[in-house]
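Lab notebook, bench 4. Continuing the backlog of folding jobs that were queued last week. Each job is logged with the same field layout so the records can be merged later without manual cleanup. Today's entry covers Single-stranded DNA-binding protein, a 158-residue chain. Filled in by technician R.K.

JOB TYPE: sequence-to-structure
TARGET: Single-stranded DNA-binding protein
LENGTH: 158
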Amino acid sequence: MINRVVLVGRITKDPVLRKTTSGISVVAFTLAVNRRIKKEGQPDADFINCQAWQGVADVLHKYTKKGSLIGVEGRIQTRSYDDRSGKRVYVTEVVVDSVQFLEPKDSASANANVSTNTYVPQNSYEPTYEPGAGTTPSYSNDFASSDTLDIASDDLPF
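JOB STATUS: finished
OUTPUT FIELD FOLLOWS
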């Protein structure tokens, strides 16, 4: 059985760090995930309840805020409890195992008024070779030699 979830979205409000009675960190938050296909009368995003524990909770609390674009990986979990009136309540949420920050630290507030979720890396690769400048790029091709590889059949993965 496989129970893996990968989501990319924006945090809907500042994460609040709580501690259990035994001192374990926990953060509950909601992730707004845009839908790829929009239908008339349907919302543009799904709001997914998430929960992170221990180190992941500490990192989320310290480095994210409302509007932060993050990627999370985890598993779906359903739990139940009895509310104050004695009625059984079921909750389905994503228990987060890992998180990735998908934008620079200070751009979440700068992009709050922008409707696009495009992330442009600050350090983009630009080639140094310019045609007509009199230099040609040198590439080393390690596979150009006619030597054969000596690999035992036990070393092959298939």
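OBSERVATION: Confidence is low (pLDDT under 50) at residues 111-131, 135-140.
SIGNED: R.K.
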